């Protein structure tokens, strides 16, 4: 029976070529990510100083320009995800957008090197850049957002494709893949925030072009490494457009809105095994969003056309994406908090005590501390916590993805509270004696806490969106993680503007909390408290949606995965397997549960019997 199941499993994955995939393939992806993130993360934490000190933006202008850039980059990951799911495979999508990213970095290097392409200082303006320098500046930022965003939309899913969820051994590898993906990102970031940031900000901010040049070289080498791994990759061909499949369900549901729902879900339209490819993943019917089920009702005397009726699987795909929306929304506030660590916290660090002996630490290098912690903690999490938790929960990842995200949200709220307390101390000392500021390393507390939060949340979201997504929408779904980041950055810009406008009306000085060029005249600590309180409220909102969420049932054609493992009685701690069990107990054909039929079909298919014969035999007995 084990050999039969193994044979069946191999026929389900025609793209799974022996000798390809696994950690051997993802090692190239890890190398590329480390090299590319060297420059990307260095820019994330230091460009606010480049805008502020080199291009003469004011404090909120520099912060908003960076958050808008990062927000656009992560939002455009949807473009990369959509293209790689529909038109070009994920590997080629990464290479194409990688060329765009390299072009952007080349333009930034040229502008930083040539003084004629930089603005002169001005007074009373949010930005001093205009004319040809402005065109080149904003063109390079747009290309950087498009290139880096497109790569991030396709790359995580390309790596995850190297592991097959239907193989129990590879399912564990998939869980580990996302942890090592974060480790490679953090390793590259550590070099970026130390070496590249130091070179960029050295000699009174006159070496920015050298930092950008190193970024160009590192990113170029990274994509060469990615290309060298092609012989080892399992590359899935793009399929039908996800947007078309979603639109078909919505249109069919509207057309059939007046039709009554059948009493049994078995009466809904689904393609049988003979009409579909054997590898097509079927999704079990669920009871949520029953109005969408009307898309799977075939009207009398109507032909089964795509825009007239949809399969149950297609309807369930839309339900999965709909269930994801509240999860995306409830992680946005955390990413708004992260934006502050890359903007205002860096500006704080620039006027704090940065000397260790005779060496002056660049302010953007302070994330070195949490990054170093994460490099130590990720292997400990992978080799110690996950095996221990796995024995208790029987879950491949140790704990569920939504549990990981919840831990991260709690820590992000704590990080903002600590940031507020540190800013109170910094401002008090600066006003008391400007010549003796507090040490830059006070910022390490807020960075360290948030670094651990990011370790939980980012990996949890990437794994969650990849595993829960329908097979033809995994790049697009994975990009939902970056959409949350994007909205967080944009929301940061909105908060800064709104709070400045509103606080102008109530403060005695008639100045906003975050106005002007001098931090000591601002009330940044109040802004941090505002985000801390908002984060606490958002956590309770997330708890509600995480409890409400029902994991996607597993593919019913895989006999080896037909198990249900309960790990807790608490709804928030539900695992995907619990939802499979519930769905299969509630949904049956002729009294035979779907998964039970699937097990029998797998067994009979291996012995040369068809699913149709099994159905006829069952009907005869009834």
Brief description of this entry?
By secondary structure, the chain is mainly alpha-helical.
Description:
Keywords: Membrane, Transmembrane, Transmembrane helix. It is found in: Membrane. InterPro entries: MFS_trans_sf, POT_fam. It is a multi-pass membrane protein. The protein has 622 residues and is an all-alpha fold. It has 20 helices and 4 strands. The protein has a two-stranded antiparallel sheet. It has a two-stranded antiparallel sheet with strand order 3-4. Strand 1 (355-356) and strand 2 form a beta hairpin. The longest helix has 38 residues, at 168-205. Mean pLDDT is 80; it is low at 1-15 and 555-622.
Topology at a glance:
Layout: H1 2-11, H2 22-54, H3 59-75, H4 77-86, H5 90-113, H6 131-160, H7 168-205, H8 208-228, H9 242-255, H10 312-329, H11 332-341, H12 344-350, E1 355-356, E2 359-360, H13 368-393, H14 401-432, H15 444-468, H16 474-506, H17 524-548, H18 576-586, E3 588-589, E4 592-593, H19 594-606, H20 611-621
Helix pairs in contact: 1-19, 2-3, 2-6, 2-7, 2-8, 3-6, 3-16, 4-5, 4-6, 4-16, 5-6, 5-8, 6-16, 7-8, 7-13, 7-15, 11-16, 11-17, 13-15, 14-15, 14-17, 15-16
Tally of DSSP β-strands: 4
Helix/sheet category:
mainly alpha
Can you count the helices? 20
Question: What does the largest sheet look like?
Answer: 2 strands, antiparallel
Taken from the alpha-carbon principal axes, the silhouette is globular
Compressed to H and E, one letter per element, the order equals: HHHHHHHHHHHHEEHHHHHHEEHH
Mean pLDDT over the residues = 80
Helix content: 55-70%
Spatial strand order of the main sheet: 1-2
Distance between the termini: 28 Å
Q: Work out the strand percent.
A: under 5%
Unreliable stretches: 1-15, 555-622
Radius of gyration, in angstroms, nearest whole number: 27 Å
């Amino acid at each position: 029976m084990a050999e039969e199941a193994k044979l069946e499993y191999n026929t389900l994955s025609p793209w799974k070529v022996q000798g390809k995939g696994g950690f051997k393939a993802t090692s190239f992806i890890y190398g590329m990510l480390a090299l590319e993130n060297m420059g990307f993360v260095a820019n994330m934490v230091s460009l606010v100083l480049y805008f502020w000190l080199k291009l003469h933006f004011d404090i909120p202008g520099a912060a908003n320009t960076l958050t808008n850039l990062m927000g656009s980059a992560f939002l455009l990951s949807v473009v990369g995800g959509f293209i790689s799911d529909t038109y070009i495979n994920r590997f080629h999508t990464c290479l194409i957008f990688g060329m765009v990213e390299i072009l952007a970095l080349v333009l930034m290097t040229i502008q930083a090197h040539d003084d004629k392409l930089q603005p002169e200082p001005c007074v009373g303006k949010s930005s001093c850049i205009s004319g040809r320098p402005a065109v080149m500046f904003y063109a390079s930022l747009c290309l950087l957002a498009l290139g880096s965003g497109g790569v991030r939309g396709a790359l995580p899913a390309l790596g995850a494709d190297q592991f097959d969820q239907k193989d129990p051994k590879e399912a564990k590898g998939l869980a580990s893949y996302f942890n090592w993906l974060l480790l490679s990102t953090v390793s590259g970031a550590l070099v970026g925030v130390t070496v590249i940031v130091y070179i960029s900000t050295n000699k009174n901010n006159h070496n920015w072009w050298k930092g950008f040049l190193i970024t160009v070289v590192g990113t170029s080498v990274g994509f060469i490494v990615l290309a060298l791994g092609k012989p080892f990759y399992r590359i899935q061909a793009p399929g039908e457009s996800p947007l078309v499949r979603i639109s078909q369900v919505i249109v069919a549901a509207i057309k059939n809105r007046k039709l009554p729902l059948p009493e049994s879900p078995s009466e809904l339209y689904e393609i049988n095994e003979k009409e579909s490819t054997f590898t097509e993943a079927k999704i079990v019917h669920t009871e949520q969003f029953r109005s969408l089920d009307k898309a799977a009702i075939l009207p009398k005397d109507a032909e089964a056309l795509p825009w007239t009726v949809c399969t149950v699987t297609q309807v369930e795909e839309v339900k999965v994406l709909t269930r994801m929306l509240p999860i995306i929304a409830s992680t946005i506030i955390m990413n708004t908090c992260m934006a502050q660590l890359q903007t205002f916290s860096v500006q704080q660090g620039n006027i704090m005590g940065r000397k260790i002996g005779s060496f002056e630490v660049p302010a953007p290098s302070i994330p070195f501390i949490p990054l170093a912690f994460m490099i130590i903690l990720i292997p400990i999490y992978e080799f110690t916590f996950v095996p221990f938790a796995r024995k208790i929960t029987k879950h491949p990842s140790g704990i569920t993805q939504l549990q990981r995200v919840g831990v991260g949200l709690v820590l992000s709220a704590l990080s903002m509270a600590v940031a507020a307390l540190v800013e109170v101390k910094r401002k008090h000392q600066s006003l008391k004696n400007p010549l003796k500021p507090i040490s830059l390393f006070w910022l390490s507390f807020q960075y360290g806490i948030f670094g651990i939060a990011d370790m939980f949340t980012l990996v949890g979201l990437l794994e969650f969106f990849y595993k829960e997504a329908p097979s033809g929408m995994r790049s697009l779904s994975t990009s939902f993680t970056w959409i949350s980041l994007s909205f967080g950055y944009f929301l940061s810009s909105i908060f800064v503007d709104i709070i400045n406008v509103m606080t102008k009306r109530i403060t005695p000085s008639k100045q906003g909390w975050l106005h002007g060029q001098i931090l000591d005249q601002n009330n940044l600590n109040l802004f941090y408290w505002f985000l801390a309180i908002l984060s606490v409220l958002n956590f309770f909102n997330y708890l509600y949606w995480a409890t409400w969420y029902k994991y996607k049932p597993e593919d019913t054609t895989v006999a080896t995965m037909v198990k249900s493992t309960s790990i807790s009685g608490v709804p928030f701690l539900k695992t995907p397997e619990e939802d499979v069990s519930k769905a299969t107990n509630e949904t049956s054909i002729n009294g035979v549960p779907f998964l039970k039929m699937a097990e029998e079909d797998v067994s009979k298919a291996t012995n040369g019997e068809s699913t149709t014969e099994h159905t006829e035999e069952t009907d005869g007995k009834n």
